């Protein structure tokens, strides 16, 4: 009786316990859905940024993963992974009872978790959001629940495909396609049996087997051989086929991708433009984009050579040089030189903005020609000049020379300050600003200066890219094409976004042709003769601010517009030992010519359009020159005293760089630093940097 009573009690307790466990399991099952999101790193595919040829890589961003369909993974590669990780994969319910029991016991006893997870469990752990990597009973139980549900709701092939694209293989490679390239330099569908078996071997210990040597190499061979044998046991290989396999030769691991030369600046500009066009950083780092830029590798190299080989070795490292080349037909920035990435936090081509000087005069000229004036229009070239808005401050010409009443060709050729001030007063500085904006100079950089009489003399600051883009409008018949650095983007799903730059009819075709004609005289007979290309016509303009704090040459052929500027990071005059204080027609023009000589080599010679016949006289060709040929200068724009209540523009580099203190040896240009550094004045210290929109000097006259 007593035994039967205890038996009944035991059965009742056992049955009750079973029911409780079943109820708990049912509750847990109901409360553990398959997560509806994946871990970012599990599916992220890095993006690749290319030069304009679409083949040469500039940079790689984000996770090295290239997702492939299961059908593209050879069967022997799949069989190797299954033999190595989960031989019962196609037969089990997503979990291994034996392996799970071992893992739970290890967790309960505090021992390190043992293997035994199925491919499905590994996928669930690494693929879905909400599953941490902590070693706990709760996390393991949740993993089991989700694995069973995944097995019931997804096909085995789906699970295997996600697993092969998710798992880390070492060498920075995520997924089997990236691993095939990392270890063997080929696509996964080109892997042989031995190579597939090695990738399966790597999964267990990716760090150890990534580049095995010595004992690690011996262990890798043992592991590889065991997988080949396992493939025999699973029927994937015959004994004869297994005997034919030889340990594969691995390619040397590639060094981590490093940006070189102008690469960092290219990446920054591409990223910034993609952001403006709606691509997030997450898209760029994990969206598997294939981004083709506008940058031409050969022209990028030519730009760097032009700067480095033209500048003398004694050039002080505080001297910054920027170069930008824009295709007038489409607005593509095909090349630039931004300086030394290790030397400054911003580049000299896109980000640095310095006074345009007399390179701004062509914008005034174009505005006049587009508003009823013509090349025969005569303006006051006498010096000094006073204007009604500031009668007490005279505006001088270089060396105080007076030219009398001169036409617009002579005014441009000789860069006569007073002539352009007079012309801007006649046209209206607001119309000059509107034209410059339509030609590509942002209004926010012009607006603070429009009311000043010196506005047409280039007191507003611009970047080399902006100035090249502006002049490209004249080369393109008055149509401004939006400057851009991205040609097209191919998404991971195969969709392609081609960049269509905005086109603006900034000035009429004839106004552009006439302005170009006047600018040709600058190169042929005026201040820009150092920029001549003897095999083709060139139009351009020099620019020099007062005290040579920024000096420019900006010019174009029908096929390419290029701007070169030089300035100092400490806002002092640009002086080069042995060359003296610089003007736009000197080293900037020489750099321009060096680059364009190479860039135009082999290109067809194209002529500029003819100017209008209005007032056409012999004055347009080669006027007498009995005056000082030094380029005219623009009154400098001195920084305002720092206002503690103001904030510098966060999106643009300041007019000056940090003071040149302890910058280390010059690496880009190579000269020893001259011992000429002086502490920056109080208003130029890094803690009190002015922005790019200080007030103009008082209007001169």
Q: What would your notes on this structure say?
A:
With 701 residues, the protein is α+β, with helices and mostly antiparallel strands. Helices cover 37% and strands 11% of the residues. It has 23 helices and 20 strands. It has a five-stranded mixed beta sheet. Strands 7-6-18-17-16 form a five-stranded antiparallel beta sheet. Strands 3-4 form a two-stranded parallel sheet. A hairpin with a 3-residue loop joins strand 19 and strand 20. The chain is elongated and about 130 Å long. The C terminus is likely disordered. One of its GO terms (cellular component) is outer membrane-bounded periplasmic space. This is Carboxypeptidase.
Distance between the termini: 124 Å
Strand order of the largest sheet: 2-1-5-13-14
Number of extended strands: 20
Helix and strand composition category:
alpha+beta
Helix content: 25-40%
GO molecular function: penicillin binding; peptidoglycan glycosyltransferase activity; serine-type D-Ala-D-Ala carboxypeptidase activity
Keywords: Carboxypeptidase, Cell shape, Cell wall biogenesis/degradation, Glycosyltransferase, Hydrolase, Multifunctional enzyme, Peptidoglycan synthesis, Protease, Transferase
Family: In the N-terminal section; belongs to the glycosyltransferase 51 family.
Domain Penicillin-binding protein transpeptidase: 324-559
């Amino acid at each position: 009786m007593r035994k039967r009573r205890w038996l009944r009690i035991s059965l009742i307790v056992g049955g009750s316990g079973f029911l409780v466990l079943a109820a708990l399991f049912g509750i847990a099952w109901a409360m553990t859905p398959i997560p509806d999101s994946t871990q970012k790193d599990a599916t992220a595919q890095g993006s690749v940024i290319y030069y304009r040829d679409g083949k040469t890589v500039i940079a790689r961003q984000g996770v090295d993963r290239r997702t492939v369909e299961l059908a593209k993974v050879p069967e022997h590669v799949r069989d190797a992974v299954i033999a190595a990780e989960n031989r019962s994969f196609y037969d089990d319910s997503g979990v291994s009872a034996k392996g799970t029991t071992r893992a739970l016991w290890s967790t309960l006893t505090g021992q390190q978790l043992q293997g035994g997870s199925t491919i499905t469990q590994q996928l669930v752990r690494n693929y879905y959001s909400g599953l941490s990597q902590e070693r706990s009973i709760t996390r393991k139980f949740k993993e089991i629940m989700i694995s069973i549900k995944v097995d019931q709701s997804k096909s085995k092939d789906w699970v295997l495909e996600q697993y092969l694209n998710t798992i880390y293989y070492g060498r920075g490679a995520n997924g089997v396609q990236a691993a095939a390239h990392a270890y063997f330099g080929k696509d996964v569908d080109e892997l042989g049996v031995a190579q597939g078996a090695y990738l399966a071997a790597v999964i267990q210990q990716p760090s150890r087997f990534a580049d095995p040597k010595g004992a690690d190499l011996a262990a890798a061979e043992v592991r590889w051989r065991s997988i080949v044998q396992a493939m025999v046991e699973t029927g994937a290989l015959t004994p004869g086929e297994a005997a034919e396999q030889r340990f594969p030769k691995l390619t040397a691991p590639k060094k981590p991708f490093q940006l070189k030369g102008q690469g960092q600046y290219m990446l920054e500009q591409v990223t910034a433009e993609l952001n403006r066009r709606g691509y997030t950083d997450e898209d760029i780092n994990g969206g598997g984009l294939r981004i083709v830029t506008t940058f031409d590798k050969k022209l990028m190299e030519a730009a760097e050579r032009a700067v480095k080989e033209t500048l003398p070795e004694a050039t002080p490292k505080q001297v910054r040089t920027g170069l930008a080349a824009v295709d007038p037909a489409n607005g593509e920035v095909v090349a630039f030189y931004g300086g030394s990435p290790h030397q400054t936090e911003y580049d000299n081509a896109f980000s640095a903005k310095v006074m345009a000087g007399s390179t701004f005069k062509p914008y005034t000229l174009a505005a006049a020609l587009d508003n009823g004036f013509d090349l025969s229009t005569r303006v006051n070239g006498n010096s000094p000049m006073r204007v009604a808005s500031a009668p007490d401050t005279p505006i001088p010409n270089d060396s105080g020379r007076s030219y009398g009443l001169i036409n617009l060709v002579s005014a441009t050729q000789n860069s006569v300050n007073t002539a352009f001030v007079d012309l801007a007063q006649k046209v209206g500085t607001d119309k000059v600003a509107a034209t410059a904006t339509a030609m590509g100079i942002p209004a926010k950089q012009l607006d603070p200066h429009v009311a000043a009489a010196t506005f047409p003399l280039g007191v507003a600051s611009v970047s080399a890219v902006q100035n090249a883009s502006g002049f490209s409008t004249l080369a393109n018949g008055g149509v401004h094409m939006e400057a851009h650095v991205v040609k097209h983007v191919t998404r991971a799903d195969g969709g392609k976004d081609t960049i269509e730059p905005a086109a603006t009819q900034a000035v009429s075709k004839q106004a552009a042709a006439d302005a170009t004609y006047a600018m040709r005289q600058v190169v042929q007979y005026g201040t820009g003769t150092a920029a001549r290309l003897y095999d083709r016509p060139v139009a351009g303009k020099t620019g020099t601010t007062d005290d040579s704090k920024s000096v420019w040459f900006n010019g174009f052929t029908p096929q390419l517009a290029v701007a070169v500027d030089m300035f100092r990071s400490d806002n002092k005059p640009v002086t080069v030992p042995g060359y003296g204080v610089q003007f736009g027609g000197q080293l900037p023009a020489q750099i321009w010519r060096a680059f364009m000589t190479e860039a135009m080599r082999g290109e067809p010679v194209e002529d500029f359009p003819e100017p209008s016949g209005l007032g056409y006289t012999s004055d347009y060709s080669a006027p007498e020159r009995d005056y000082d040929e030094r380029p005219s200068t623009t009154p400098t724009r001195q920084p305002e005293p720092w206002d503690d209540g103001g904030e510098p523009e966060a999106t643009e580099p300041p007019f000056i760089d940090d003071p040149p203190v302890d910058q280390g040896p010059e690496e880009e240009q190579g000269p020893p630093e001259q011992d000429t550094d002086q502490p920056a004045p109080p208003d130029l210290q890094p803690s009190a940097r002015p922005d790019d929109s200080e007030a103009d000097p008082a209007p001169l006259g």
